[in-house]
Amino acid sequence: MTDIFPSPDSSNVVDFFDTDTNHEQGHISLEGIDVFDSSKDNTIVVNTDDLSANQTEATPQGVVAPDAMDVQQGDPTFDFFPTDAFDDTGLANVDFDGLDIFELLPSIQQDVMAQSRASQTPQEGSHEALVFTPSPLPNEAQLPAKVAAQPTEARPAPSTTSTDRTRRDSTETTSTKPMSENSLPHIQKHPCAKAPPIRITPQTRSTIVHDLATRLGPGHSAELPSEVILEKCLRAYLDCCHIHMPFLHLRTFKVNKCPSPLLLAMCAIGSLYRLERNLAGDLYDKASKALERTLANQALKMNLGWVKPKSSVPNADYHPLWVAQTQHLIIFFSTFSGDPKAVRKGLDTLPQLTMDYRFRAAALSHQRQTASDSQNWHDWIELESSKRVLYATFVLSSLLTITYGIPPALSILQDGEVDMPDDEALWNAPTRDQWRLRMVVRKPRPRFTMRDAVVQLMHGETAANGSLFTDWSPLIATIAMHAISVQMWNGIQCVHLYEEGKTLASVISSVPDPESATFGYDYIRVRSFRHLENSLSRCRTMITRSNSEGETTWSDYDGPLLFNCAALMRIAYARSLTGMGALNRIVLLSGDGKLVERMIADYVVAAQTRGAYWNKVMGHVFDGFCTPIKAGMLLTQKTAALTWSIEHAIAGWDTVLLFTKWAHKLEGIQMRCERSGVKGLEEEEVVMLDKLRRLLRDACVDLESKKVTSMAGEMARLWASFYDDTWVWGVTPRIGWVLRELAVAYEKDLTKTANELDKAAGTS
Fold first, then answer.
1. CB of 449 within 8 A of CB of 480?
2. Where is this region: Disordered (predicted)?
3. What is the pTM of this model?
4. DSSP for 330-354?
5. Could you tell me which residue, 583 or 90, shows the higher pLDDT?
């Protein structure tokens, strides 16, 4: 049998992505493509007869590009017949308490969206926080007794040619005026493109088995499930996982040309979403071993033949694109599998992926500098696929930091110069001709990197080239929110460096008047951390105003990325409150029950900060807790794992730890004050405890049967049910177990407090 698979040395995306679609050159049909904006009365004339194959010129003057291009259902090019990934009769015996979950999946999002209306409106004045932008510190001798604030109009205009965006004029002072919202991005909603139909025939399966056997070598089994099972697993991956991070170009994806490690990694994740965990483990094991042996053989050849770098060998510093894609899926599978050994193995191989990130990013920078206006569809797909797999790596690093408490593997400063993904309309173009047409009518767009996005979102400033890009796609917003989370993690390290044990909230509240900050430490900390607070408010405003109706779920039309941004927003807020007393996330990996118990006990009795900033953030976090309750407990427990992104599970893990710890502290204070008859809680704190009580009652939690009831413990126990009821990723039931242990610790500590108060009252 002829081996049609690419060698490991090949980096050409055309090896398994088919871009050789034959179309008549120079004649582009506009049928099925709505290139007109229905909200504007404009006319667009396209001379398709003169359109060359390599045309990429910008829209001519006077031609108004549309905001989006919608595909009409009548277009035969887009006539994809529906495929149900969850109709396997082998899952008929799964007991969901009488609920046929797979039958309900097609309408889950509409049901949840119709029932869920938790308020997402930012609090009045939440984006009006004081703005403190960094500036060079003057010499102490040059600093007057009190620096008068300069009017905004009197400041020198920032240079648009300088690439150093950290420099400011030395006369700039702290401004109490909010940053202009003109620079705040608008998230553009686009129809979520459906994956094209993918079929695995018996001949395709035989080809995959042959390639797998070749890579594994003798002595390893290359047996695979039937083509029907493989197809259903692949479809489940596309329907449930790919939509949350679309880094594979499905329009040119060909199963019979895909390397077996990549295809099996996709099927392994798809098996998880079908709740076929044994099959998922087997497919993951084969994909992992096949990739390891492929890379080992490649490394052996390089070691034996290496003398000095060869300038004639292109892309010698990093692996082919399909290898990076496979590594990402395998590490994603292992690190969220819940198995401690698999998690450690995935974390051990993460540096390989991050090193590939840096080499590939450097190569992309060179390609951008040498790119010509005659870029064709194939080159564009390869470039865009490379960018998207890099950002998939960045997102994975961010998620692992939140889940396990490890430092971020990538940073904004060093690794943020990769261009953001291009327009989704171009990415989803089904043919070369339609891609050319969409290139012609697209809006002009400046170069825009992740670093530019963070600067614009946090500082309200333009990019290094002086341009301002505000029409963000949901994917760009998702990447930017992960970058904000990483930036918050780095910022909180400064807090611990200067004031060990304090959180961002405590540092902000320690100097309420910014003008009282003198030269030195106060000057630095107030300007820095007030600015972080304002940045979070800007992020929240961007997300909430993109969801004007306050919807907290997603529809099949819009896709899930904007909904995922709401979870990432809660994660960013949680980063700002995470201090030295945070729970050691190693509890998710430890097999020592006594060690886990001690870590939980230490977390419960650790010092807890209070204040206005905590009250504000806890209010935002609480909105996220209302979503599954209002959507319906049973519906969310049975469906969220199968449809929502893992960002929501991790955001819940991160925020429920903070919220329950804070609520437990308030319950203890309230109990002591009620016994002594004095006021101990602020009005906002009393209101939040009352909201928590009503939420628990709405969830049918019994708060009256126990002598001492810990609402924090009941909240932790309630949230655990969302993790260990129906689960896809193995890390979620482990999170549920930790939360149940945490609930017991809260109850013990509150009962101990009550007994001490009773004893003190008896002796008096």
1. no
2. 113-189
3. 0.75
4. HHHHHHTSS-HHHHHHHHHHHHHHH
5. 583
29, 316 in Cβ contact below 8 A? no
Three-state SS letters, 189-239: CCCCCCCCCCCCCHHHHHHHHHHHHHHHCCCCCCCCCCHHHHHHHHHHHHH
Quick one: tokens of 425? 């309309």
Distance CA(233)–CA(238), nearest Å, equals: 9
Going by the DSSP 8-state scheme, the letter that residue 471 receives in this structure is E
Q: What are phi and psi of 429, to 5 degrees?
A: -60, 125
- Burial annotation 279-315 (CB, 10 A radius, 16+ → b, else e): bbbbbbebbbbbbebbbeebeeeeeeeeeeeeeeeee
Q: Are the beta carbons of 239 and 269 closer than 8 angstroms?
A: no
Picking from 632, 611, 565, the residue whose alpha carbon sits closest to that of residue 113 is 632
User: Rounded CA gap, 296 and 288, in Å?
Assistant: 12
Q: Which residues contact 151 (CB under 8 A, 6 or more apart)?
A: none
Map residue 303 onto helix, strand or coil.
Answer: helix
Other Cβ atoms less than 10 A from the Cβ of 542: the count is 23
Residue 209 neighbours by CB distance under 10 Å = 15
Amino acid at 11: S
Tell me the average pLDDT of the chain: 75
- Identity at 62, one-letter amino acid code: G
- Residue 134 is predicted with a pLDDT of 36
Nearest alpha carbon to residue 385 among 408, 418, 346: 418
Count of C-beta atoms within a 10 Å radius of residue 256: 18
Whether 162 contacts 518, CB under 8 Å: no
For residue 78, pLDDT over 80 is answered with no
